[in-house]
From TrEMBL:
The chain crosses the membrane at residues 374-399. Belongs to the peptidase S8 family. Keywords: Hydrolase, Membrane, Protease, Serine protease, Signal, Transmembrane, Transmembrane helix. The active site is at D66 (charge relay system), H101 (charge relay system), S275 (charge relay system). InterPro entries: Peptidase_S8/S53_dom, Peptidase_S8/S53_dom_sf, Peptidase_S8_Asp-AS, Peptidase_S8_subtilisin-like, Peptidase_S8_subtilisin-rel, TAT_signal. This is S8 family serine peptidase. Residues 1-32 form the signal peptide. Residues 57-323 form the Peptidase S8/S53 domain.
Amino acid sequence: MLSLGSTRTVLTRGAAVAAAGMLLFTAAPARADDVRGGQRPVIRTLELTHAWRTSKGRGVTVAVLDSGVDPRHRDLVGSVRVGKDFTAGANPPGVAPLRLHGTYMASLIAGHGHGPGGNLGIIGVAPEADVLSVRVILEDEEPGFREFNTAERFENVVARGIRYAVDEGADVINMSISKELATEEERAAIRYAISKGVVLVAAAGNDGDRKVDVDYAPYSYPAAFPGVVSVGATDRRLRRAAFSNWNSSVLVAAPGVDIMGAGPGDEYWVGRGTSQATALVSGVAALIKAKYPDMSPPLVARALTAGANDRPPGGYDIATGFGVVNAARALSEAGKLAGYTETAAGAQAQDSAEPLPGGRAAPIKVIARDERSVAIHTTVAAAATLGALASLAVIFVLVRRVRRAHSSQGA
């Protein structure tokens, strides 16, 4: 099954009640200024105030492949286009989608706040970006959840959602979802997206505290496909959160604990998971694509890694990848890379760069990860577009069935 639902606490009217393993509480609605205050740690960690002097994401479309986005939330209104629902037929007729997780993720990416100057409510990483909502998953609470996760006709909804998002003009695709099965259709869809210049960002998964007999946490898809920016989550100290998967697919990390976001019906949520970290990184990718619209996915990935803070000893580890994403530094690194495009010959990416007019050629080196690594630094996405997906796939253990684990951390 697909893994999705992050742990979330809703701040809205009502007494405390238990629902689907989550605690919903408070006796009074959260004040919008309290919400913005709750975002300060993320804004500070990503250096967003500095980054917004360069880019706020204007002109970029981020496709949110998720459970649906509420286009009427006051912090998202005017920024959301509701696209295709690939889960249609799973819920009984007349049942409206809950759109909890998807709204939450969209707000972290492109929330623009509300009130005078937009100073109240949720501000996303790329507040001037647009969102394309593509529904590819149901919430645990929806009545069609079981049907969706057992019926064969829904097996390749993620692959179809990726292709649809690309064809609808997405610049970045956020996939705060994870599963154990890698299909050929998804592999091909990712190649297609990268070939069109679309940046793909996905959650590394939330089984990091699961006991296994190997020295890494399980691989999750689509994050573990080469060419996808795989995102781990950090705690308040910017160390790997206990739930965050740790393996050589992890490229970068972002805050994933006590993350404030929006929910349907003008609610606000606090939650944790690699889902939230992924949405934040997608927002940074949107800032880069807005400033440098022609930048290729491998170079966007390089900007994210080169600009990361809190780098582990040696520059890379399987817990937080190349470090914690920093929006201001990533934009600065993107500026240095803007004059180049990666080149490749045959079925193997080359360690070189070709200058655009006015640029100066410089090598783009392949940087190996630690001794257990199978992925590379920035040329991994280029390799994906040229068929390296097939050669790397044998490293990963594929299972026949997709998992949707609704744990205390969630994806």
